[in-house]
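Posting this for the archive.
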Amino acid sequence: MPTYVAFLRAINVGGHLVKMDHLRELFLALKFTKVETFIASGNVIFDSSSKNVGALEKKIEAHLLKELGYEVRTFVRSIADVAKLVASKPFNDKKLNGEETTLYVGFLADSPADEFKQKLYGYSNEVNTFLVSDREVFWWIGTKFSETDFSGAKLEKVLGMKTTLRNSNTAKRIVAKYSPK
């Protein structure tokens, strides 16, 4: 049975608080198995016999809206997809291994249109560099996150779609823990 990761957008913001044990119960109610949360930032690992990621996203979003009373945008990837993402090298070693640099991954529902990708690439500079790869956007930051003039909200506006960001180290840790040995 495939293992998936649901990357939830804004699960605990705007006065809403969902405890991780409650979040697990919500996923178990959907008949998923081996449900675990990974760090308290909206990462849920689960097994499902479904092979339709889009259907899983819709099913989870509808259930969370019904149970929580607000929209929780959901981006589902198989653990194999997350492993491929972690193994990829979106930028050169100099960028990836520099001091005070961070690589973020933005998960998207669909691949953005070329015009939006080009618009995003126009924001690349010595501090922020972007690369869109299908349904993910890699965002390299060459300084502290608090010192960049770009933001997740701006990323969504430029791409014209919702995203949820994770530090690439989170993806690496998920792969290390949940990939088949």
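The longest strand covers residues 3-8. The domain at 3-81 is CATH 3.30.70.1280 (Alpha-Beta Plaits).
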